[in-house]
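Quick one: structure for this chain?
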Amino acid sequence: MANKNKALRITRPAARLAFLGVMGTLALALSFLEGLLPPMPYLPPGAKPGLSNVATLFTVHKLGCKEAFAIAVLKALFAGATRGVTAGLLSLSGGILSTVVLCLLLRQEKLGLVGVCVICAVCHNAGQLAAACLLTGTVKLVAAAPVLLLFSLAAGIVTGCISRAVLPVLLRLKLSERTS
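Got it. Here's what it folds into:
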């Protein structure tokens, strides 16, 4: 998967920056829309499906891992600005861990997009749970792990199916890098 995607990467600096801005905006818009969803029963407050991770996945394919980390940090800053410092720190911890795993797993062709998205969703929630335990100074929050694991599996499958349907089309787009 990695060698095939290298040919599809955006190379010119201005085009890369513009594309990163579009992906950052898309990630923030999807994150905002997810924030409008009502709380899900039996889940911790703030649990979201993670649809903005489709933008992160696409960014890895078109630009690379460094830019995907920038998207994760941008989403964390947005969470911190709109929902508070704790939400920002939880977003950052989950986002960084899942992006690291995403970058490592995309080199494997065996898992497929759904498998990668499921594992990344589990890692995202694991990172958030670890950060929540550190922030509160208690390990009692680990009791939520089984529920979060089930939610991660469902969210990862949804994100993976959306990615599997949308990503091939987006990757075939010929993004113009010509200057006017």
